[in-house]
Sequence to fold (398 residues):
Amino acid sequence: MGTETTLQDALGRREINAANELTRRWFASRSSVPAVASGLGVWPLLAALATGAVGETRDELLTAAGIDDNQAAKIPAALLQAVRAAPAIKLALAVWAGARVTLDPEWAAVLPVDAVGSLTGDPAADKADLDAWASRNTDGLIDRMPLDFSQPIDLVLASALSVRTTWNTPFLDSSRAFQQGPWAGLGRCRTLTTTLNDDLLRLGDDASVLTVPGDGGIDVLLGLGREDLAPQGTMSTLIEAATDPAWGRSSTELAVGERAVGVEVTETRASRPQTGPEIDVQTVRFKLDSDLDLSDDAEALGLRIASDEDRARFDRLAAEPVYVSQAKQSATAIFSATGFEAAAVTAMAMTRAAAFAKPQHRHLRASISFDRPFAYLARHRPSGLILIAGWVDRPELA
Fold:
């Protein structure tokens, strides 16, 4: 028998809680919940930036990441080690430096082995190389690095995360037209139905949460909130349910005729006796993509000072003064009859201070049927680490 370190051993409960809390706080802070995004893709980059920062720049990054300076130095390598024991998850971290910056050797030394590369200074060549890295490390789900290479870039920090799982109980793929609710009038939509024979449906006052188990230790959770509950509230409740085993009550506690959010219990007849919970599920197939400018979320992600050319201090990262000039994430998620796959590439570009004019300030503007917009997330079952999450605003059309 091997002695491979598990994900939860490599990170520890404090670190897993910190990563999950970053996801919850980030989604709650946004004016709208993204279709798909990964707080876990951002988290190790904040840790890497924090190890190279000083003063208020470091403090803001550490607070957002929910870690201390000692943890920040260990997280990138620990996270890479952790996912090696989780075959359904793939993660890569990398740093590329241009000729105009000199990396601090002590900062570079705590990065994972082979994580540091070079930028040529030729935007077309650098874009091609980094696009290839993104595609290679997401198995082609995302084929480009989400950065604007027409802008000066002296340093890039990036993560590539992907997750794939096959359902333990597959769905039946069909189509239907919704007769009422927000999806009425869309025409025929791709729908998925199945019966799950386990205690997988939890009920709360504000939402009902269904767990769909897959292989490789991956669960995908679907959260349907009250019709008057904002998407941010539904997502926060879903994350709470995903991280607290005691959340809500089992759907098996409902009697015939009782209801919860999106749930009702009925009585049927069968030739064989019931041996366990039975949950009839109807949901929708979805394929979602998003491109996020994380600068819009600088407050929640601890990047406010790090992105300020005049205030950013990364004295432990590079010999020259640098600041975060771009922070972006591209993500995709597919929920089908047979399984779930998703990926996110997160990139932060850094530029030498005074390299170009400052940009203008941004202005931030027991049967259950998922037959209206709902939240979802994918989690590593043994550790509880949330990998990716988002909001299904409309189904895939047939």
